[in-house]
Structure to design on (466 residues):
């Protein structure tokens, strides 16, 4: 593994610190002292000693605490190689590196310089969703099929095919870091997704790489040395599945400041690797249908704000179907779409309505409708035109009489009133007005002019003066 470069410690200090760490070892000489020798070599790696320095340090330690049967230079160097596989070089100074405040100097640009430096948006990775160097969350409930979905995404990017048949991709290598599934499970799933898409393994072999991290206790901060060992530009997309297992121990995922700090790490990795990140995460328990897009997802709200694309899957009323929606930073908003899962992959379901999200509330029991008689035509729906045909005549009738007839026909009073107002607005029914005390009437024809107005008032006769 590569050394921690954030803090430079003089060789003499590292040698002295390592020797002190060796003297602090409290271990019985089990297995002929080999276990203690292995830990001693591990301390040398953690203090970033060279092979010559490590041999010198361990022999200085042996003067006071010798190993049973002695030890040779070749044996120490062999144990150093083994220790490098399980230890981070320079890890003893990692905390000091994290604690050192970064030096920040002003590097502002004028608007003219800014536009000249960044003349256009970054290149797309997934059209409409993700650009180079950006981060995308993929959020769904447990056991929805998120891992199948991102496996499909990895194959789409690796072959340059549209993802889900809708979002074009730019071809490039993909790295999947999976800490949930065993290697055997991942190996079984990838060919199934490829066969469902009609893609031969030869088309993406060498372009999709997988690292199985289950059981290796690797968190997001410890991945720093891992990513530094990867050549920048080698991968176009890095997928972290699942994100909650990359959260460091004793970290509160409901704390906005903590989660924002973790996304800062991801941004730095994306900058160093010149790639995009896709984070697979889960929702909270319960219904998600009444939440906004950015509120879907377990943990602090900083997760949706820090990511460039917050893509969510919510259950549809139809089984095996979900609604895909997203909040996007550098693209125009997208319309939600429905997906249906068939044969290991998700496909677009244009026949479904994205507005029909599944609710946790129990569905209302519908009254059993009587079976229609053979040959009998179904009744047309109630609209303003049918309302006029059924209840309004050329002869003016009072509003109360019209509403009463509609109620007898099975309409509610409220529904009848709405249809009457709608018919009047559409010019299908006309209101007839008389005296202020007379009831309003309705007819299918307009009111004659001779009937409009008030009844003339009686005039009082003037008394003649005598």
């Amino acid at each position: 593994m590569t050394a921690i470069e954030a803090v430079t410690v003089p060789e003499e200090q590292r040698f002295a610190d390592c020797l002190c760490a060796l003297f602090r070892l409290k271990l019985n000489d089990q297995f002929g002292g080999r276990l203690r020798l292995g830990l001693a070599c591990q301390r040398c790696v953690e203090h970033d000693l060279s092979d010559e320095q490590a041999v010198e340090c361990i022999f200085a330690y042996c003067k006071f605490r010798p190993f049973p049967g002695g030890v040779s230079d070749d044996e120490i160097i062999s144990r150093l190689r083994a220790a490098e596989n399980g230890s981070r070089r320079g890890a003893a100074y990692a905390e000091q590196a994290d604690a050192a405040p970064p030096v920040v100097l002003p590097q502002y640009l004028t608007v003219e310089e800014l536009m000249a430096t960044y003349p256009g948006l970054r290149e797309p990775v997934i059209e409409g969703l993700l650009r180079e160097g950006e981060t995308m969350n993929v959020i769904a409930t447990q056991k929805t099929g998120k891992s199948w979905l991102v496996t499909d995404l990895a194959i789409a990017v690796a072959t340059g095919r549209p993802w889900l048949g809708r979002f074009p991709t730019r071809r490039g290598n993909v790295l999947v870091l999976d800490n949930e599934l065993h290697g055997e499970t991942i190996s079984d799933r990838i060919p199934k997704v490829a066969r469902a898409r009609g893609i031969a393994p030869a088309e993406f072999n060498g372009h999709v790489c997988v690292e199985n991290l289950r059981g290796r206790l690797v968190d997001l901060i410890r991945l720093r040395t891992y990513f530094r060992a990867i050549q920048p530009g080698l991968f176009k997309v890095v997928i972290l599945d699942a994100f909650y297992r990359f959260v460091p121990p004793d970290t509160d995922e409901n704390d906005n400041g903590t989660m924002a700090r973790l996304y800062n790490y991801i941004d730095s990795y994306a900058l160093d690797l010149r790639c995009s990140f896709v984070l697979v995460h889960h929702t909270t328990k319960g219904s998600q249908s009444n939440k906004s897009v950015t509120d879907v997802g377990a943990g602090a709200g900083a997760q949706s704000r820090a990511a460039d694309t917050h893509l969510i899957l919510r259950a549809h009323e139809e089984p095996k179907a979900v609604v895909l929606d997203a909040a996007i930073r550098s693209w125009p908003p997208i319309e939600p779409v429905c997906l249906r899962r068939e044969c290991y992959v998700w496909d677009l379901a244009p026949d479904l309505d994205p507005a029909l999200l599944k609710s946790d509330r129990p569905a209302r029991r519908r009254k059993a409708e009587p079976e229609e008689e053979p040959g009998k035509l179904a009744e047309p729906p109630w609209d303003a035109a049918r309302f006029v045909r059924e209840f309004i005549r050329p002869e003016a009738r009072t509003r109360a009489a019209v509403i009463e007839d509609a109620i007898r026909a099975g309409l509610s009073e409220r529904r009848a009133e709405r249809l009457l107002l709608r018919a009047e607005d559409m010019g299908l029914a006309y209101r007839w007005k008389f005296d202020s005390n007379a009831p309003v009437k309705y007819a299918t024809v307009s009111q004659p002019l001779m009937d409009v107005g008030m009844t003339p008032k009686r005039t009082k006769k003037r008394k003649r003066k005598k």
The longest helix spans residues 256-273. The chain has three domains: 11-99, 124-348, 384-451.
